[in-house]
Amino acid sequence: MxxxxxxxxxxxxxxxxxxxxxxxxxxxxxxxxxETLGIVGESGCGKTTLAKxxxxxxxxxxxxxxxxxxxxxALKGGPLKAVRRRMQMVFQDPFGSLNPRATVGRxxxxxxxxxGLGTRAEQWRWAEELVEKVGLPSDSLRRHPxxxxxxxxxxIGIARALALRPALIVCDEPVSxxxxxxxxxxxxxxxxLQQAEGISYLFISHDLGVVEYIADxxxxxxxxxxxxxxxxxxxxxxxxxPYTRRLLSAVAIGGAGQASADxxxxxxxxxxxxxxxxxxxxxxxxxxxxxxxxxxxxxxQVACHFAEKIAASHADDPAPGG
Length: 322
What we know:
Elements (H helix, E strand, L loop, with lengths): L4 E12 L2 E13 L4 E5 L6 H9 L6 E6 L2 E2 L5 H10 E4 L13 H11 L5 H14 L16 H13 L5 E5 L7 H18 L2 E5 L3 H7 L2 E6 L2 E7 H6 L4 H11 L32 H5 L5 E3 L2 E3 L4 H7 L9
Parallel strand pairs: 3-8, 3-9, 6-7, 7-8
Antiparallel strand pairs: 1-2, 1-4, 4-5, 9-10, 10-12, 11-12
Helix pairs in contact: 3-4, 4-5, 5-6
C-alpha cells in the first residue's frame, strides 16, 4: 500500500539570535489512507512546526513531503493547487482561525471561490450541506463566529476543512481550547466523519488521553525527532522508550502528558548523542556520544540504544497509564 502521506528526513530550522533553532531535525513518518496518526510530546518538541510544514505553511529546510507518492515541494501552478485541495487543516484556536467579519456562509464558500468551483447558488447549497454534516444549526450560515460557542466554532473550522473533500486533514491541537465535555463531542464528530468520508488525520496533541482515544498509531516526538512509533493501544501497555514511559507516568498521576519537572534542553543547543540522555535514568556513555536510530523492536519503532534492556526491566511492571 502506498502511504497517503510520507515524510522523508524532514527538517525545519530557524535562524534566530544566538544560533539555529532545530524545530524538526530529520523526521521519517508515513500515514496510510483512512488512518489517524497521533503526534505527541511536550511543548517545544516540534509538533506544530511539523503540522505547518506538512500542510505547506512553512517550507522544509531539508527532506521532503510526499502526498500519494508525489513530492510536493517542486509543484507549482495547477498541480500545486490540486494537491492543496487534498490537504486541509483544523487549527487549535477555533476563533482566531475564523474571519470575525465574515458570516459562516462566506467562510464555508471561501474554499469553493478560491478554487473556482460551482456557481454562487451551488456554493451556498454545499455550505448548507457542510453545516448539516458537522451538526450545526440550520440558520448558522447567516451568523458570525462570535455568535457561537467554542465547540461550535471548531465545528465551523472542521466544516471548512471538509469543503474540498480532502484525503488528509492535519489537526493541530483541535480540542485543547475546549471544555472536556465538548472535547468528546468534537472527537466523536471527527471519528464519524472519518468513517463516512474515509479521511486520514495527522492529529497533533500534547494530551495522550485524547490521542489514545482517536489515533490508530502514535509517534512520540522529543526535541525535533521521533523517539517512538507504535500502535496507539500498545504504546500504553508497553512503551519502549524512557521518554514515552515518562509521559505516560505524568498522565497516570493526573497530567495530560507534560512530563517535565526538570528543564527540557533548548533546541538551539540540543544535547549530543541521544537528545534525551540528560533526563534519562538509564543513560550510559554511549548515549552521550551516539544518536540512536529509529529501529524496529517488538512490532514498534524506537530510538534507544538500550530499549531491549529497558523493556525487559519493566516486564513485570503495570502499564504506566493503568
